[in-house]
Amino acid sequence: MVVWWLMSGWPLSLHLLRFYPKKAGSAVVGWAANGTLPVALREPVLGRFARRYGANVAEAEKPLKDYTGLQDFFTRRLKPGLRPQEALVPGALNSPVDARIIAYGEITAGLAIQAKGLPYRVAELLKHDPQAARFEGGHFMTLYLAPKDYHRIHVPLQGSVSAVGRVDGELWPVNDASTTHVPRLYERNRRATWVATGTGPDEGLEVAAVLVGATHVGGVVIAERWLDGRKLPKDGAFPVAQLPCTPGDDLGTFEFGSTVVLLIGGPRAKDWKVQRAEGDIKVGQRLGAFE
User: Fold this and answer.
1) What is the C-alpha R_g of the chain?
2) Catalytic pick from 139, 151, 154, 216?
3) Catalytic: which of 98, 149, 202, 249?
4) Does the structure show a pLDDT above 90 at 257?
5) Would you say the C-alpha torsion 185, 187, 192, 197 has a positive or negative sign?
6) Prediction pTM value
7) Looking only at Cα atoms, what is the longest distance across the chain?
8) DSSP state of 276
9) What is d(CA 174, CA 144) in angstroms, rounded to the nearest whole number?
10) Tens digits of per-residue pLDDT, 155-183?
11) 154 an active-site residue?
């Protein structure tokens, strides 16, 4: 084992994760997080979690004592008006999450870049989409959510939703160590997909939001609105009847932190220019627009 670790160049902690039962461990953590805390323990337990990870309690919609447990707090909503959407201009895409932008580039030969020297296949990322090649020549952007972040995902454009899906898979971490060392991380991990075609000022764009799960983050949830009473399959997809969407609408939720990969395609993808390609960003802030 030691020889393999030295030859692989992986950090020891990441190498040891090869032997950790990631799905079972994630299920246990999820079960514990969904438990109900006694009222007297909510402020001390949730307050300690918030201080440990730097979560901004002042932004939360409710006081700590009103959250039933860790998962309830982790998937908290914010006070109204705290994440205004930037005004729509032609081709505007607004951030769907509070996150750190860790990668951006063009989709070439069906590949996007996870980290230096580590490409992954867009067709495999969108496993159940038979026309994934339509994103060729478009853009990808990777947004990483830390445990401190607000973990609801919002619609990034004006358009109509055409499909949702889910891909079962592994649950590797999505931290810096993993993105740097684990090949094809995003196409290996469990994920959910949401696809929309732009209308109005966003006509000519098509956007896929891929919600990538991670260790202890098995819950990648698409909002009920887009399911039309159906249950998202464990590993499959179905079309959506062109339901209208507006920037800021609920898109989904992460149960603990993870990553959103945005794919930006469509006939006008070549006219789209990124405005924020790195650093921290909040829900509603503009990622880019037409030149």
Assistant:
1) 19
2) 154
3) 98
4) no
5) positive
6) 0.89
7) 58
8) -
9) 8
10) 999 999 999 999 998 888 787 878 888 88
11) yes
